[in-house]
């Protein structure tokens, strides 16, 4: 069963949409379940995430984790945004059923992919940021 918070973020998702001329865009998917998540970031000259939007094709949990992840990174530095983990997203939502944990991993990896795109465009290195994966099924859920 889903928590009240998961249902709220599914029924009333925050930050849906695209950002034109985004500082960074990250797209990840999961071949097993078919979910696809794209996150757009607007990052200012001080490396603060001014805005974050998402478009997700997937189940309720995928939409809820996208919504929560964007909420968690707006106003943060790129370094702080990088530290938002799938576990933090799940905790903020009050938990997810075990079969839906991969959705929080999608959210984490979509943020990382958008940060990677931003770093590539700017020619900078964000400490601790690894190249993105296209399919989160390639990751171990503990590795996240």
Features of the shown structure:
three-stranded antiparallel beta sheet, 5 helices, 3 strands, 144 residues, alpha+beta
Description of the molecule:
With 144 residues, the chain is α+β, with helices and mostly antiparallel strands. 39% of the residues lie in helices and 16% in strands. Strands 1-2-3 form a three-stranded antiparallel β-sheet. The longest helix is centred in the last third of the chain and has 22 residues. The radius of gyration is 14 Å and the shape is globular. The two termini are 23 Å apart.
Proportion of residues in helical segments:
25-40%
Q: What are the segments in which pLDDT stays under 50 over at least 5 consecutive residues?
A: none
Structural class: alpha+beta
Strand content: 15-25%
General shape: globular
Radius of gyration: 14 Å
Strand line-up across the major sheet: 1-2-3
Indicate the mean pLDDT. Answer: 93
Order of secondary-structure elements = HEEEHHHH
The number of distinct helices, counting runs of at least 4 residues, comes to: 5
Strand tally is 3
- Cα separation of the termini: 23 Å
